[in-house]
Every structure is written in C-alpha cells, then in structure tokens.
Design brief:
With 194 residues, this protein is α/β, with parallel strands linked by helices.
Length: 194
C-alpha cells in the first residue's frame, strides 16, 4: 500500500531491445546475485498500489513477478510505447514509470513525485540535479489517448511528448546516483566491484 495522497499504479519498463547490453533481456541481467528487475521491484512495490511490468519477451518469467503488459506497436518503438501500454492497463489515475535498469531508485520516489505535483499538471519528471530523468515519471492516466495519437504520428522521443503537456520537475539532486542506469555489461561490472 502506498504512502501517497491517492492510489498509484506503477509500470516497470522492461520492453526494450537492450542493444547496449548485447541484446540480453536487461531485466534478467544479474547484479549482486539478483536480476535487475528484482532490485527495482523490491524498491518500488512498497511505494505503490498496483505494479505492472511492460515487457516484449521473457513474458512467462516476468509474469512470475507481476502482471505483464506488452507494447501493442511492433518492432520495439521505444519507451513511449511501453508507457502507452502501461497507461492503458493501469487502474489508477496516476501512473509511475521507471526503467528496469535503475536498481538504486529512492525508497521515497513515489511520495516525492506526488509532492512535486502542482494543480493542473499532467506529468512529473525526476531531475537528478544535472539531468532530467524522463523515464522516471508520474503521468496522468488520462493522457493515454494523446500518447496513442502521438505514437501514430511517429513521435518516439519522451521529452518531446512531455513538452506537449503541463510538466513539472521533482528535485532529486540530493540523490543523483539513485537514477544510475546499468545499460552495459561494464556498468554492471563497475557496480559489482564497488
């Protein structure tokens, strides 16, 4: 059960090609003896009321952890397609998105994103003090039809789609490493060593 003002759905985005990880399914790449997806799940599950995994392969494996929703667009069109699948599947008005390769997410991520909301905002995006983290975002479920339209028009860039809406930033400059992406085998090796 979340400790947020209203119920939240969450979607872990694990539907990409993972080309920088040599094509392996990134969610199942081990870090410290556990798959990346497990690290993310353990941090996120206590913060939300519903959790779904967006995946386009290893569906049976992922479904052992949480309900799975796949992109309805072919050929891995990117995170926006996963977001659309998640928005269409979510039960709650606000949906928190995170990638499957960020195992160090803050344990108060949902609460802080909710706190950053302003009246009328549609999207809240984490900012680590240096960079916007567009795949770590709280998105109003009502944006699903607009996102479907944007994807149909060929939009593939998250920040361009966010810019069409009332977006605010949530300040996470106190914990920038919480958003470290483990995209490549060398990233995993570096974190295992430390």
């Amino acid at each position: 059960m979340s400790n947020t003002p209203d119920p939240l759905s969450a979607v872990i985005l694990a539907g990409g090609r993972a080309t920088r990880m040599g094509g392996q399914d990134k969610g199942w790449v081990p870090l410290a003896g556990k798959p990346l997806i497990q690290h993310v799940l353990e941090r996120l599950a206590p913060q939300v009321d519903e959790l779904v995994i967006n995946a386009n392969r290893s569906l049976e494996q992922y479904s052992q952890l949480a309900p799975v929703v796949s992109d309805r667009l072919p050929d891995y069109p990117g995170p926006l397609a996963g977001m659309l699948a998640g928005l269409e599947r979510a039960r709650h008005d606000w949906v928190l998105f995170v990638p499957c390769d960020t195992p160090f997410l803050p344990t108060d991520l949902a609460a802080r994103l909710c706190q950053a909301r302003t009246p009328g905002c549609d999207v809240v995006v984490a900012h680590d003090g240096h960079w916007l983290q567009p795949v770590v975002a709280l998105v109003r479920r009502a944006l699903a039809p607009d996102l479907a339209q944007a994807l149909a028009e060929g939009e593939r860039k998250i920040d361009y789609w966010f810019a069409r809406h009332h977006m605010v930033q949530a300040d996470f400059s106190d914990c920038p490493h919480a958003f470290d992406n483990l995209n490549r085998p060398e990233d995993i090796a570096q974190h295992e060593a430390s």
